[in-house]
Amino acid sequence: MKNLFSIEGKVAVVTGGSRGIGEMIAAGFLANGAKVYISSRKADVCSATAKRLQETYGGECVSIPADLSGLDGIETLTKGVESQEERLDILVNNAGATWGEPLDVFPESGWDKVMDTNVKGVFFLTQKMLPLLRKSANAEDPARVINVGSVDGIKTPVFENFSYGPSKAAVHHLTRVLAAHLVKENIIVNGIAPGPFPTWMLSAGVGFGGATEGVDWDSVGKGNPRGRVGTMEDIAGLAIFLSSRAGAFTVGEIITCDGGAVASS
């Protein structure tokens, strides 16, 4: 029971790991003894984040840049991990995109970019990583897949980002579908639906221009039932639970991490 939440020695991949929620989860994994691969589109940013996380939290953090909205990028990330690892214990599908424009002028490009990254990318990266996940999976210690959705996939979004909420609703249902298929192979799939966190995406939406430091997150948090935005401990703690022995009997769930936003809506 003392090691109930241990992920010591695990190998994890966190997509969209160069900033925001992905960076928070990667930091939590590193601090708790996992080896972490992070991926994002911009190579310089991804490498800088990996270096900073490793220096701050210890362990080993490896950068493999890739655009996960298409199969070429998915293959790049998969082959990069395969070249260095014989197994994969944890896959966190966190890479995501959004697009904001009024309904009357919302473009096809904005629809496709969001759906390709948020839905297609999750499915095909999971598919390509299955051989590595299967090598880790066993009845006592299953492999884990965590798909990061959003409260906007549960309740109606307040922003004019018309493809984002539907894409996250699709991620939630895809999570349940994959969970039903893969649980028989000792691969457990669950989802997290975050609410407000101090990320670039939320910053852009509330008018902070994408900045995450030196802005008034307290004003944003006042609108949440918990009276604040989420922290690294909140999201990393939930991801660690789902990746550890403590979460080994939780299958196909979409767990909100939102300070009560959905429950109070």
Could you write a compact summary of the structure shown?
By secondary structure, the protein is of the alpha/beta class. It has helices at residues 20-31, 43-57, 71-82, 108-136, 164-182, 200-206, 217-221, 232-243; strands spanning 11-15, 35-39, 61-63, 90-93, 143-148, 187-194, 254-257.
Please tell me about this protein's structure:
The protein is of the alpha/beta class and 265 residues long. It has one domain: Rossmann fold (3-Layer(aba) Sandwich). Helices cover 42% and strands 13% of the residues. It contains eight helices and seven strands. Helix 1 runs parallel beside helix 2 (43-57), helix 3 (71-82) packs parallel to helix 4 (108-136) and helix 4 packs parallel to helix 5 (164-182). The mean pLDDT is 97.
CATH class: Alpha Beta
Q: What is the fold named in CATH at topology level? A: Rossmann fold
Helix content range of the residues, please?
A: 40-55%
Instruction: Record the strand order, biggest sheet.
Output: 3-2-1-4-5-6-7
